[in-house]
Amino acid sequence: AGDANSSNIMGVALYEAVGKVYWVDDARGRLMSADIHENDGTQYEEVAAFAQPYDVAVNERGGNLFVSCEDTGIYEIDVDGTDKTQVIDASSGITIFKAVDVDSINGNLYFVGDSGIYVGSTVAVDAYWSLYTDLVEPRGVAVDATQDLVFFTGSSGVYRGDTACDKKVMIAELSNSRFIAVEGFASPTPAP
Question: Which residues pair with 161 in a beta bridge?
């Protein structure tokens, strides 16, 4: 059946304002967290259970998290695991969900679904729109709102586009690229 201690860590997100790192574990079907200070590596906790979690993103302005689950959709959840709400599901027309990232400056959630990159307001995610479509196996997404750039990965490499969907450029030809991150220097003031 498998090792009870086995893990398959997928997405990781740092929430500096609360001093925690969050990750999703596909093998255990869990969102986990750990304190980033005063931790010897043995101190972590289960935040919530999910079916096939793929990625997690921090919404600093909202003070919460978004979790994508490969076959079921995207959930919004408080940092302590309460108020878990599914905000997009397969009835939306998207059947496979991958990475998520939050643009805290403009209040938008970027996510990978089927063969596209989509965007929705963090307060009304279900009213999303397509940014890039007809991509080949997109997996990861990261946004740099200060420069209006979006980065995404697919089966053939890493791409850079803009948040207005005016252009798309391959910046690295790689096979089977998955996750990507952009360091944010202009993070907004976190929610209380």
Answer: 150, 168
